[in-house]
Amino acid sequence: MNPISIVGAGPGALDLMTIRAQQRLKSADVLVWTDSLIPIQITKLVKDDCEKIKTSSLTLEEILLILIKKHKEGKKIVRLHDGDPCLYGAISEQICRLNDEGIEVEVVPGVSAYQATAATLGFELTVPDLTQTIILSRADGRTGKPKRESLQKLASIQSSLCLYLSARHVEEVQSILIKYYPANTPVAIAYRVTWPDEWIKVIPLTEMAKTSQEQNLIRTTLYIISPTLKIGNNRSKLYNPTHSHLFRSS
């Protein structure tokens, strides 16, 4: 039988999906998709007779029962996730359960919101002498995090910090970050990046909570806190004429 394909839809724009993702959608008999997080335009890639099942009101257990049932019927199934399914996609428990049923699973990666946001703004998140590190994380929230990954520890590095699933906790997040980053550190707030109603703004760290609340942002929001969003003359050594390497002598 065909494996179940867990496919990353990317941030929202149809042309930011991978070719493989589009191929899987076009050949699917059943589409099981997170309708609350993915634009409906993407689902139009499937065949006219493809069965579409929305999951916004379903539990993980209910979704798994559907996947197992449809697979036993010999259907070619796409489980469509927003962004990249390997980031906050809850795919581990899906894969384990499906593997227990003897069902093979493939994962098709997608462009993540942090990549789309940086590209939309035209900024690099790893700039020489500012930071060479990107951290992808989230506020502690109700689900919590390992203590070794507390926001305080992550912020103390002062790298490019990308926070998912944190809009509901923005006041607490700002109060922690401002203890470690300079108050004027740029913060990119990205709501539904690459969607038709995309909203992105770069503001100082001190305005992070206020701006979020003014825009009533509680979900589908990413924060990028990074000194690279306000760059000066920070040139990479790789392309500097004074720098030699394997393929070029100085």
What's the structural blueprint in terms of helices and strands?
Blueprint: E1 4-8, H1 19-26, E2 30-33, H2 40-43, E3 51-54, H3 60-72, E4 77-81, H4 91-100, E5 105-108, H5 113-121, E6 134-138, H6 151-156, E7 160-164, H7 170-177, E8 186-191, E9 199-204, H8 208-214, E10 221-225
Parallel strand pairs: 1-4, 1-5, 2-3, 2-4, 6-7
Antiparallel strand pairs: 7-10, 8-9, 8-10
Structural features:
single chain, 250 residues, alpha/beta, Cobalt-precorrin-4 Transmethylase, domain 1, Methyltransferase, Cobalt-precorrin-4 Transmethylase, Domain 2, 2 domains, five-stranded parallel β-sheet, five-stranded mixed β-sheet, 8 helices, 10 strands
Task: Provide an overview of this structure.
With 250 residues, this protein is α/β, with parallel strands linked by helices. The chain has 2 domains: 4-108, Tetrapyrrole methylase, N-terminal domain (Cobalt-precorrin-4 Transmethylase, domain 1); 113-230, Tetrapyrrole methylase, C-terminal domain (Methyltransferase, Cobalt-precorrin-4 Transmethylase, Domain 2, 2-Layer Sandwich). 26% of the residues lie in helices and 20% in strands. The protein has 8 helices and 10 strands. The strands form 2 sheets. It has a 5-stranded parallel sheet, with helices on both faces. Strands 6-7-10-8-9 form a 5-stranded mixed sheet, with helices on both faces. Helix 6 (151-156) links the parallel strand 6 (134-138) and strand 7. Helix 7 (170-177) packs antiparallel against helix 8 (208-214). The model is unreliable at 233-238 (pLDDT under 50). Its EC number is 2.1.1.133. It is an enzyme of class 2 (transferase). This is Precorrin-4 C11-methyltransferase. One of its GO terms (biological process) is cobalamin biosynthetic process. Residues 4-208 form the Tetrapyrrole methylase domain.
